[in-house]
Amino acid sequence: MTDMDRMAYFVCATPRSGSTLFCEALTETGIAGRPAEYFEALRGTNVPRQPHEYFDLPEPEVEPLLPRVDWAPTPQLAGARDYRDYVAWAREQGTTPNGVFAAKLMFGYLGEFTGRLRDTGAYAGDDLEVLAAAFPGVRFVRVVRLGKVEQAVSLWTAIQTQQWRDGGAGISSREPVYSHTAIAHLARYLTEHEDQWSSVFARAGLFPHTVLYEELIENWDETLRRTLQYLEIPGADEIELPEPPLQRQSGGRSRAWVERFLDEERDQVRAA
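User: That's the sequence. What structure does it adopt?
Assistant: Structure tokens below.
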């Protein structure tokens, strides 16, 4: 592909939906871009969302469990004269030699990203119109996890430990603490963001290719191959697919927390 023919796509997700597992697999193919969260820094801070920013007003029982993270803006973002310079850098990082660019977007910072693009004065319109103008011919792939309680438990654990991938470094050796209040809030948060993604695409009349986390785990090769076919990347049918690049982080503690949460929810219904 030439620069004029470059294609772009975004993996649209919510936290702990399996999107990291999926995106690293796409990267490993060597032909599907390098989808990562290049655009997660918030406008007000130039760093990603802090743990407390997942909660509007944290409950007294939740607040002490939220770590404070001392992040610094990435050098490329801090040193950019214009946000378009940073986007150009991200596009270079996220593009494989065949000209395919990919990035991952969470709904939680979609508006932050498109707002930055509008602030350059080069783009206008709603969120998807801005993305289409900045990345001509852009396509969209959604990653959805059906088990929202499981997803919320995973997110609550990651928020406390700041360990977002298997083998990654956390910020504390302290064991995460169960909180029904936090998990319930995050389950609503994730469901609302999932619904918002659906609304964004429905308003634009778009039907993105959708990958279910549960199907990805059970039918790895088939699910990955269908995505490459949707993207219409030349040579995709001939390549050997990578093995899952990450191990699943869910274990005995996560399963116990899910069961505890569901038991407590049933008790609340019976008591009502």
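The chain has one domain: 3-147+189-244.
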